[in-house]
Write a sequence for this structure.
């Protein structure tokens, strides 16, 4: 399966891209244009700008079904009265269509990969596969410090890995990625086991870290260590670890994250909406070369999966919170959104199934941007326009795994996904 | 000219709306459906949700031509090295197409009215008129404390008013609205004259107030008063006054704003991007019933004119800055975006040419929202979905002055506007 995309603008000059077996084989420029190659599929880019697709470092995809269910509440009543009782009523079918809705929304906003943490693994995995998007996907794990539950969860993890485990990580659409929820829902025994499991099988590992002050205070009281130190003492931190949120960090924890090569995911909208307090210490992470990704978190605390919006808000938040308009500029935040700031496709092998650049040999995951979109004009600075102005609205075409997932803003079968997700939400409401 | 919009959802129930001469004449519900009326134009809403259109309380429309020209800089070098020298090169034609581009962008994101402050008044006014959108529009005034310049600017203001002044405010598409730039660019003599001019002619008056700490510190040093007190001493504050930004306010200033009935415009994106410091004191304003609007500011400090995005960021910023997730909820911020929180169309007569509700007798300025948009599903809470999830992307149809300005996401002549604006920007770049 090959594809040729012609009549595009790459790095400010006219180009064409030849894609084969999910990878960018050749980039043609100047005197090589038009390229003389046989191809299965020919796409006229219409003068579109080509940029790397976005990667969502932390979400709970199927929570699209809880979009707008409860907002503007304090954390504990929101979780205890609204989110948890509703989540408990989600069926396997809900998870399938909730994840399909999430994948559709991400594709439509230029995202081709996400790190997921949720329940009903077979169904969420099937939904990801059917949607054609890439992922590093759960299963989530919580044992609530119960020995027997811990044993069962570890056995389930082992079984799911036997069934779905990564054969060839570079070519997997979905990387099997254990997702212990957090230090306040998973026992140290299970966490330690997962650290070993991740190391022995070379698996990414996805966990919430230092999202709230309460998490830090409780950890200090119980373990006389801060969360990052505690996780490190359990052998859980490595270049395979994806730490979501990380807003309450001290210097010594930053040093540990840097030393261990942990990838940290920034979720500004969720942190602001839930008033997590503090602020993602971008400058401290950048100065230590800590790999960074951008994440949307789940739809119940955002309430969308639009990473372009997330990038703009991230840049605004740093400037506001730290009082420095030069902090986290458009290029820097775009590098976080594409995975470049995490070294994805470069030095960091945590997600070998994606790349962060449009270059020969890279995975063919890219976006065509409409140059005539009202918010893309004038075009003094492409990245500024993408981050601060047009965002997702200007994404015309999405290519993932060398296949077209969206063309002229349309995704095959999107009406069906929206209809089924709406039906599941309605039925969920009636069950409550 | 009459219009009937059928098959819509209003306040959660099926409805139809009959519009005549720019106003909502009749709302049909339940047993009155389908309505039996003759009409010039019939629109099938396709099950769309109907909501009031948004109003942009503060912008500099033609600055679309400076979108992305300079970002991520400190205020003074940004203004002195980038913005001012470039603005000085803008021609009357630039202003026309820059304003057309702005109007197009606002229409496409659900905004039907804006308060503008800029130069080349005849051309910006012509652009607004041609675009079909409503406005309270300039001219901007700066005299830089020069007596002769002050005399000339006041004479020009008087002349422009003679030419364009409001005949019948309730039916004007464009309200003539003097726009003294600020206390640090306009002399007290001219400000005092404008206060009288606004009162004598019943004109809205639009001014930047307390955007930066420097403005406050300089005012204290020069006048021994804070900016709001100083403006009040000049007779400039009244229910006709539109005060943009207002992030550096003390208690006594809040009391003055409340007493004078000033409408305050919140511009969170611009304030965050430029690190204006402090934060719009929403709760203090709400508790004093101070009228509030939402604004985007100009495209050089945003970099778009999307009020839906502005509402989401406003809600997130309050929660983050003040550490309270319940602060500025979706309904409250939507009321600011539509003008309801400013009493527009209700007690506050500052802009008699707009309304903030979809009700009989109101101006026919409304939006049809696509119920099948991926980010509108599920629909537990329409306002939450509009503010926190879908935003502008779900706006299908825009009605302003009882006329359809956008249908199925398309605006007549949009390609031409984008092309001309792009051409003007290119020529501007070559002149620099």
């Amino acid at each position: 399966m090959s594809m040729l995309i012609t009549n595009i603008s790459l790095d400010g000059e006219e180009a064409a891209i030849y894609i084969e077996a999910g990878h960018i084989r050749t980039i043609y420029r100047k005197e090589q244009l038009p390229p003389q190659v046989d191809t299965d599929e020919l796409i006229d880019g219409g003068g579109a700008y080509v940029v790397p697709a976005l990667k969502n470092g932390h979400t709970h995809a199927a929570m699209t079904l809880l979009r707008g269910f409860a907002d503007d509440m304090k954390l504990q009543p929101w979780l205890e009265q609204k989110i948890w009782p509703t989540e408990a009523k989600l069926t396997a079918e809900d998870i399938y269509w909730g994840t399909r809705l999430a994948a559709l929304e991400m594709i439509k906003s230029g995202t081709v990969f996400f790190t997921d943490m949720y329940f009903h693994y077979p169904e969420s995995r099937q939904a990801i596969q059917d949607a054609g998007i890439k992922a590093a996907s759960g299963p989530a794990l919580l044992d609530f410090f119960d020995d027997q539950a811990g044993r069962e969860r570890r056995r389930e993890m082992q079984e799911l890995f036997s069934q779905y485990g990564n054969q060839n990580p570079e070519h997997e659409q979905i990387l099997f990625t254990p997702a212990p929820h957090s230090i306040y829902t998973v026992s140290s025994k299970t966490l330690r086991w997962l650290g070993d499991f991740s190391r022995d099988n070379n698996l990414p590992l996805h966990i919430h870290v230092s999202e709230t002050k309460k998490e830090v205070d409780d950890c200090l009281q119980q373990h006389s260590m801060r969360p990052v130190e505690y996780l490190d003492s359990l052998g859980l931190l490595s270049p395979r670890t994806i730490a979501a949120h990380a807003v309450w960090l001290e210097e010594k924890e930053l040093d540990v994250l840097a030393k261990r090569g942990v990838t940290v995911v920034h979720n500004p909208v969720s942190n602001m909406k839930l008033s997590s307090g503090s602020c993602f210490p971008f400058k401290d992470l950048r100065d230590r070369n800590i790999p960074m990704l951008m994440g949307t978190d789940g739809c119940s605390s955002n309430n969308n999966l639009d990473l372009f919006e997330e990038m703009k808000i991230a840049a605004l938040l740093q400037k506001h919170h730290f009082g420095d308009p030069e902090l986290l500029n458009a290029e820097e935040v775009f590098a976080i959104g594409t995975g470049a700031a995490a070294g994805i496709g470069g030095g960091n092998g945590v997600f070998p199934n994606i790349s962060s650049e449009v270059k020969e040999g890279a995975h063919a995951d890219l976006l065509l941007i409409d140059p005539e979109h009202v918010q893309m004009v004038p075009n003094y600075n492409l990245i500024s326009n993408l981050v601060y102005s047009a965002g997702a609205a200007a994404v015309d075409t999405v290519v993932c795994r060398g296949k077209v997932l969206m063309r002229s803003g349309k995704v095959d079968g999107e009406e069906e996904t929206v209809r089924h997700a709406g039906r599941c939400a309605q039925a969920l409401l009636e069950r409550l």
